[in-house]
Amino acid sequence: MILLIIRMIKEEKLKRSGIKEIDKMSGGQFEQYLGLLFKGYGYSVSITKLSGDYGADLVLSKGGKRIVVQAKRYSKNVGIKAVQEAQASIAHYKASEAWVVTNSNYTPAAYELAKSNQVRLIGREELINMILRLKDKKK
User: Fold this and answer.
1) pLDDT tier, 13 (very low <50, low <70, confident <90, very high otherwise)
2) What pLDDT score was predicted for residue 17?
3) How far is residue 70's CA from residue 53's CA, in Å, rounded to a whole number?
4) What region holds the Restriction endonuclease type IV Mrr domain (predicted)?
5) Confidence class of residue 50 from pLDDT cuts 50, 70 and 90?
6) Distance CA 60, CA 70 (A)
7) Domain that holds residue 127
8) How many domains does the structure of the chain reveal?
């Protein structure tokens, strides 16, 4: 009975977050969606061009701080290439931080590389929580 209740709560959380719709988006749509999400958190957002973006899909600014974001709308786990691209884009965009955001999760190697390069990884669960916090804030 308790497991059923826990499963029902998780399903409701997934439904409220809209993550299943995000899973169906194209990469470009996911970037646009993240732009709106981060604007909701008070960031100024620039979306880079689709090709030749130097490793960043979004550039966030807030309080004099610049953050580059690599967006990965994947059905499988994200590997080290995304972490490498995000880290490399810091210098080009004169950013202080790099984040990789996915609707999925990360490989162990991606976690290890991100940790040693101070790249923040935002995976599926954290993304869902960010979406829900913003929705609750708007109520």
Assistant:
1) low
2) 74
3) 10
4) 22-131
5) low
6) 11
7) 2-138
8) 1
Write the burial class of residue 82 (CB in 10 Å: 0-12 exposed, 13-18 middle, 19+ buried): buried
DSSP states of the chain: -HHHHHHHHHHHHHHHHTHHHHTTS-HHHHHHHHHHHHHHTT-EEEEPPSSS-TT-SEEEEETTEEEEEEEE--SS-B-HHHHHHHHHHHHHHT-SEEEEEESS-B-HHHHHHHHHTTEEEE-HHHHHHHHHHHHHHH-
CATH number of the domain bearing residue 20? 3.40.1350.10
Tokens 């988006």 correspond to 25
Whole-number Å distance between alpha carbons of 29 and 7? 29
Tell me phi and psi for residue 18, to 5 degrees: 80, 15
Both tokens assigned to 48: 């880079």
Residue 109: φ, ψ to 5°: -65, -40
CA torsion 126→131→132→138, rounded to 10°?
150
